[in-house]
Design a protein that fits this description.
The chain is an alpha/beta fold and about 110 residues long. The chain contains two helices and five strands. The protein is elongated.
Length: about 110
């Protein structure tokens, strides 16, 4: 069985840096202009939208099921929620889980 691996489509340090800046911006706008001000609401909505996108597109967040392989041994099967076709790889990365089958994502974009 061919296994499919997906790398993270963004660098973690850049993602966390943007999230940190948006959180600080939201706190500053909230404290200076109030919670219902347009800049404050925009900063927080952008912050939460990027958080949701980061979770959805992270290949580490996946559905884990158990199935039997050809030898009758039960193994874990991991399937990411969303994966990009351009980033699919059939060669395992260096930090791959041993004894786990990696299948294609549920939604391939």
């Amino acid at each position: 069985m061919v296994q499919t691996y997906y790398p993270r489509p963004y660098r973690t340090i850049q993602y966390l840096g943007v999230q940190f800046l948006l959180a600080i911006t939201g706190i500053i706008f909230w404290s200076l202009l109030g919670i219902n001000s347009t800049p404050s609401l925009f900063a927080w909505m952008t912050f939460y939208t990027l958080q949701l996108g980061g979770v959805l597109f992270d290949p580490v967040i996946c559905a884990i099921t158990r199935t039997e392989d050809r030898g009758g041994v039960k193994v874990e099967v991991k399937r990411p929620l969303i994966g990009f076709r351009w980033s699919e790889s059939h060669e395992p990365p260096e930090d791959v889980d041993v004894g786990v089958i990696h299948e294609r994502a549920y939604l391939r974009i």
